[in-house]
Amino acid sequence: MNWERIPLGPLQTNAYILHAADRTCVIFDPGSEGTKLVRYIEEKGYTPLAILLTHAHFDHIGAINDVLAKWELPVYIHAKEIDWLADPLLNGSAYFIGKQVKVTCATQCLQTDKPLSIGAFTFELLETPGHSPGSVSYYCSAIGAVFSGDVLFAGSIGRTDLPSGDYEQLMESIHDRLLSLPEETIVLPGHGRETTLAAEMDTNPFLNGF
Q1: 62/102 Cα distance (integer angstroms)
Q2: Contact 52, 28 (CB under 8 A)
Q3: Nearest to 54 by CA among 113, 134, 121, 157
Q4: Residue 173 C-beta-side C-alpha neighbours within 13 Å
């Protein structure tokens, strides 16, 4: 089992492909450039099983329609942000880009009180609100990594100046949920390079005092 990072769109939002030995995969946050993403998956010979969303800001959902036009897949998202998918005011596209992002699809509400298993993949679901109210991080013990969305970055944290952002809530999410994982856990963020929890605890200025 391994992961691949694919930065997409003007904000270089990281989509991730987590794939197993049988070439099945799950797709995290297909945010933009849907044709490019679909072509990449096809060229690799992967068979997607699901789309997993860390949250529903426009730069994390913009390629969903293109992916679903190629494969019929379930889309997993926190219940608090289901309505954001088809609403440009909620997902932010009405404010930040020149076109409105509207995703209409069948969704699966994430149940954060139990593991999520899809094919060969199993995740511990961590509610990590603050950047947005329905932000979820996916911890995969099989690879020792957490897909953190826009909660924690290398040297920084998610912004909280957007509608529904909450700085104190974000810091609680990082401290109570992410930092409770093993220190060697790889952090796969929504933007930028990967890091580890140990590195962030040592050098991230926002985590001083934790």
Answers
A1: 8
A2: yes
A3: 134
A4: 27
Domain 2-207 matching CATH 3.60.15.10: the answer reads yes
Can you read off the two tokens belonging to residue 128?
């990590």
Q: Give CA angle at 146 (5, 167), nearest 5°.
A: 105
Q: Any idea what DSSP says for residue 185?
A: P
Single-letter amino acid, residue 83: D
Dihedral angle over CA of 31, 33, 35, 40, nearest 10:
-80
SS3 75: strand
d(CA 150, CA 11): 12
Identify whether the C-beta of residue 207 lies closer than 8 Å to the C-beta of residue 176.
no
Per the DSSP assignment, residues forming a β-bridge with 152 are 157
Q: Positive or negative, the Cα torsion across 92, 55, 102, 82? A: negative
Q: What is the mean pLDDT of residues 2-13?
A: 96
Nearest to 63 by CA among 6, 18, 3: 6
pLDDT per residue over 81-113, tens digit each? 999 999 999 999 888 877 899 998 878 999 888
Neighbouring C-beta atoms of residue 130, cutoff 10 Å: 23
Kindly report, residue by residue over 36-51, the tens digit of the pLDDT.
999 999 999 999 999 9
**What are the sequence ranges of the domains in the chain?**
2-207
Read off the pLDDT band of 80 (50, 70, 90).
very high
Entry field: residues in the chain? 210
One-letter amino acid at 156 equals S
